[in-house]
Amino acid sequence: MSETTVDTSKRTWLITSGCVGAVGGVAVAVPFVSSFSPSERAKAAGAAVEVDIGAIKPGEKLTVEWRGKPVWIVRRTPEQLEALKKVEGQLADPESKRNPAELTPDYARNQARSIKPEFFVGVGICSHLGCSPSDKFQMGPQASLPDDWQGGFFCPCHGSTFDMAGRVYKNKPAPDNLEVPPHMYLSDTRLLIGEDTKA
Amino acid sequence: MAEFKEISADAPMSEKALTWIDNRFPLSKLYKEHLSEYYAPKNFNFFYFFGALSLLVLVIQIVTGIFLVMHYKPDAALAFASVEYIMRDVPYGWLIRYMHSTGASAFFVVVYLHMFRGLIYGSFRKPRELVWLFGCAIFLALMGEAFMGYLLPWGQMSYWGAQVIVNLFSAIPLIGPDLALLIRGDYVVGDATLNRFFAFHVIAVPLVLLGLVVAHIIALHEVGSNNPDGVEIKAHKDEKGRPLDGIPFHPYYTVHDIVGVTGFLLVFCAIVFFAPELGGYFLEYNNFIPADPLKTPLHIAPVWYFTPYYSMLRAITGEMMYALIACVLVAAYLGATRAKISNTLKAAVIGSAVVGVALMLAIDAKFWGVVVMGGAVVILFFLPWLDKCEVKSIRYRPDWHVYLYAIFVVNFFVLGYLGIQPPSSIGERVSQLGTLYYFGFFLLMPWWTTLGQTKPVPDRVNFVAH
User: Chain B contact for A33, CB < 8 A?
Assistant: First the structure.
């Protein structure tokens, strides 16, 4: 066997057909990998949600589900709104400048991160690793929080803290503020989450 | 190719049958190579039970898993209830499920001890590098298997644990968010995720795992087992070519391993029957609450076997990045001034350090946390080329090497403990030190393993007959 010379023309065609076969193999992988992406049904499930916010009292929070995520509607008290100014120095991104296209629609790019200062609408998913932060609305010293706590949210997974407008504090694992979903008011008490006037 | 063997017509039936098979399939040959004529060193100690035991646990997991799949429903709306149905209504379903859940933790107990054995006796050293690499790949597959299996009961911990780990991938720059979407198959962990994790857990990963186990054993039987003295028994053979310090695996080590199996099953059964949740460590209490995408449990922690790595993930904060940058700069400085390498290599060292530091400053700490967590497992693959000590076994290394190993083990436990605890500022500092020690232990190995006076290695293994 070893003394027979290599037939280069055969070898060339063997390599060529091997390469063509490899291309075919990669092409076959495409449908399989594509099948991992969200199905048409999952994509269609992202419809907007209408909520009646008339019954929320100041200082209360309502959670609704939109695209499988918790969306919070918090009616803030005047003290809580006042506190938003005090904490600005301790925040990582007080003016919502990071990734504004994904996180904060133009109409919420203000201190209260909302259309109506009283109502905060935000996706309750921590920008670190996707846990849902818990409510820590009470001001003052308490477990896991600084003594000058001004009210906000605390993520139990890795200890990130957010103010009452979902703005993240500095030096925390979470890099970004909480996402404000597209939303609009249909009337004074009816809120539509998932769509805004632009759409 | 073996010659076709004829046998006399008046040979016993059993011998005829065996010859018939051997002429068509190498049954006797395999039996000899892997059992009756596989010579293992005679000085195996306690730590050598864990290879056989991990095989036993693999069998337990496969058998109990098959029976669980007969009753389980991989559907977000039905999964939690179907597990409760197994626990309450299926005859002996509780036993099968507890065997499977305890088996998962037992798997990691025996595998960690098995890896520790390899670490201290130098079983990863030449010529056993591939045995070690296949073993590391098994460990990686096992981690994937455990993680995906943990989602299936669809409890709060299942759900939020998967949410956190899948989101780790979204920290990768550029491709991250799309990759996380591809893994979940939906915008949040949901029915699609549960279904695909089920497919991976019950078929894809187990197939890979079985293949790797076969490769691990074939590689081991090719080079032969190491032993606590770290000397090669093949160096001294009798006139028939059998190692003088070796004994046939069967019957000596098969009988020996039955003792280990008995001890193991005693503990295993005690846990299955008396403490299947093991105080919340084997089955977390929050996982008895159905998954609720709107509410994260107040404290989430992975199951105990992942907590050392989880601690390292949490240790990487914005502040820790400065410590890591300092480490990179010191390493580059030493590389450029002290290492005996060519000037081009030195320039490459400095260049890559500059690029590394720039990336470390540019990308979020969150991403580097993921890199560190992954690196903690990946670094194990490089162990055969990091350890430069002239002796294999810890028995003949300088005494202070033993202390470094001891601190490594304690450090691993401390990291594991901190990973279970809620985040705290002291815990964060300790886990940062622990992370530095873990990586320092491995990355500085080429340096520290060459230091110190090793003890004389015996020619033959140490063995005292009982």
Answer: yes
